[in-house]
Amino acid sequence: MSPLHLCLLLSAGLFCIGLTAALCRGNAILVLLGIELMLNAANLNFIAFWRYGSGSGSTGVVFVLFSIAVAAAEAAVGLALVIAVYRHQRNIRLQEATRLKG
Amino acid sequence: MLLPFIIIASLTLASAAVAMMLRNLIHSALLLVLSWTGIAGFYLWAGAEFVAFAQILVYVGAISMVVLFAVLLTRPARDVDSPLPAPTVIRLASGLMGGAMVASVLLTAILATRITGGRAHAPSVTVRDLGALLAGPHAASLLAAGVILTVALLGAIIIAAPSPRNPEDPS
């Protein structure tokens, strides 16, 4: 088993933990953190392929930098949405956020 | 070479898994900070130092603070705290099943792939190279990322600010 396999396994494990959290938990902040974890797993894959892949160049590193920037923006907007939901229904349970259901 | 990776990987996976299972949000946020630090350690191990420090600055420094503030600003009121409704068990089971299915697919795909070639030493990317790349071929993307960050932060302020038309809002 090569080191790239190990990196991919670590990233797959992180992705599945994040996915399970995003699917199971009812708390909006934990769902957002699960999504952040999945994004981190994707970044980890970029670095792993940059390190162990056979291609040349440093596109992987640059892409991860942009991905981190977009993740920061996403976290800010997501937590602002959580605070807006809290202002409307006084808790952040996703099961109760059904006002837009129709 | 492999021992640091195993330590980093087990630390990252364990703290992430425990963080997602805890009921206390503060504890899970702090454990996730540990997990993000582990990911930064992985970047250092892989030889991408600049990305590791960007990860520490952005995730461990900034996003963790925002998450902690959001947790503290959204404490549930004690008197309206009702027990969880019944469909939670079904949701939990289906979520776990979905995660397990994705995990099995990913595991099978990774373990069945034969990887040949690959370099033995980390390709060296200095900060100077990164700066030249960001200011040269990727300058337009850098500008776009700056615009996205500005617009997203302005939008976050607008979304999270209390609406002025509603003066009897207790918050």
Q: How does the SSE layout of this entry go?
A:
The complex is a heterodimer of chains A (102) and B (171).
Chain A: H1 3-24, H2 28-52, H3 59-89
Helix pairs in contact in A: 1-2, 2-3
Chain B: H1 2-21, H2 25-46, H3 49-73, H4 88-112, H5 127-135, H6 139-160
What is the largest interface, and how many residues per chain?
A-B, 70 and 85 residues
Rounded to the nearest angstrom, the distance between the terminal CA atoms of chain B is: 53 Å
Low-pLDDT windows of residues of chain A: none
Overall CATH architecture of chain A: Orthogonal Bundle
Helix content of chain A: over 70%
Largest sheet of chain A: none
Characterise this structure.
The complex is a heterodimer of chains A (102) and B (171). With 102 residues, chain A is an all-alpha fold. Chain A has one domain (3-96): Orthogonal Bundle (Helix Hairpins), CATH 1.10.287. Chain A has helices spanning 3-24, 28-52, 59-89. The model of chain A has no long low-confidence stretch (mean pLDDT 89). Chain B has 171 residues and is mainly alpha-helical. Among the domains of chain B are: 1-75, Four Helix Bundle (Hemerythrin (Met), subunit A) (Up-down Bundle); 125-161. Helix content of chain B is 72%, strand content 0%. Chain B contains 6 helices and no strands. Chain B has helices spanning 2-21, 25-46, 49-73, 88-112, 127-135, 139-160. The longest helix of chain B has 25 residues, at 49-73. Chain B is extended, with a radius of gyration of 22 Å. The chains are: A mainly alpha (102), B mainly alpha (171).
